[in-house]
TrEMBL record:
GO terms for biological process: proteolysis. This is (Alpha)-aspartyl dipeptidase. GO terms for molecular function: dipeptidase activity; serine-type peptidase activity. Belongs to the peptidase S51 family. The lineage of its organism: Bacteria, Pseudomonadati, Pseudomonadota, Gammaproteobacteria, Aeromonadales. It comes from Aeromonas molluscorum 848. Keywords: Dipeptidase, Hydrolase, Protease, Serine protease. It holds the Pfam family Peptidase_S51. InterPro entries: Class_I_gatase-like, Peptidase_S51.
Length: 242
């Protein structure tokens, strides 16, 4: 199984879609001989799906075909060399994955055929067991919680622990602590901007272009921050690797 789970798609310091992680993404595609990407853009609500495909193609230098252009989305996944799932709204994305009948085909493509899966923001959210730790509003009525379950832990992308002046609502840490209180058997991995998890077979790596760490939230335990993937070895079926 080959997964790249990214907190976000763009940064101010690195131009282009996935520009901050471009070398890692391109290395993965080159290692697998990928010359065409199938893009799942359903999370994009206020943007143009064709433009998202063009942006990705321009950034990575690989042909990108958006799944919305296919008459048979399931067949597009079944023949895909690589599956890229865009950021946007996790609720809308997960709804469309279920309604288009893509959950099982993506699971089979990734788990059985070893097709690389690259997801950022909402695309990262849906790679986990559910979208319960998304930051997005449930903008659609058909709110479905179970997701692809390719990665065994819940992830909170775009994690931010900075204090915002004048903000009187719960902090992100408090919201994640609430999740863990309701779901004490589950852990949440909080990914800051410009950071990612890369899973290859039984190995997992963590990387941040800014050199920042990630946090793990679990009910009844102190919130801890880590700089590498070794602590995840105790939380996932994967063998942690630097």
């Amino acid at each position: 199984m080959e997964l790249l789970l990214l907190s976000n798609g763009k940064t101010t310091e690195h131009p282009g879609l996935l520009g901050w992680a471009r070398q890692r993404v391109q290395a993965l595609l080159a290692a697998r001989g990928v010359n065409q990407i199938v893009l799942v853009p359903y999370a994009v609500i206020r943007g143009d799906w064709d433009q998202r495909a063009r942006d990705l193609e321009e950034s990575l230098g690989v042909e990108v075909v958006s799944i919305h252009r296919s008459d048979d989305p399931v067949s597009a996944i079944e023949s895909a060399q690589a599956i890229f799932v865009s950021g946007g709204n996790s609720w809308r994305l997960n709804q469309q994955l279920h309604e288009q009948g893509l959950i099982v085909p993506i699971q089979r493509a990734v788990r059985e055929r070893g097709v690389p899966y690259v997801g950022w923001s909402a695309g990262c959210n849906v790679a986990t067991p559910s979208i319960r730790t998304t930051n997005d509003m449930p903008v659609c009525n058909a709110a479905v919680l179970p997701a692809l379950g390719l990665f065994p832990l819940q992830i909170n992308p775009h994690y931010l622990d900075a204090s915002i002046s004048g903000h009187m609502g719960e902090t992100r840490d408090e919201r994640l602590a609430e999740f863990c209180a309701i779901n004490p058997s589950e852990s949440v991995l909080a990914l800051r901007e410009a950071s990612l998890l890369q899973i290859s077979g039984e190995h997992i790596e963590y990387w941040s272009v800014r050199g920042e760490g990630y946090k793990v939230f679990k009910h009844g335990e102190e919130i801890k921050e880590y700089q590498d993937a070794r602590p995840l070895g105790a939380l996932t079926p994967f063998t942690a690797k630097l």
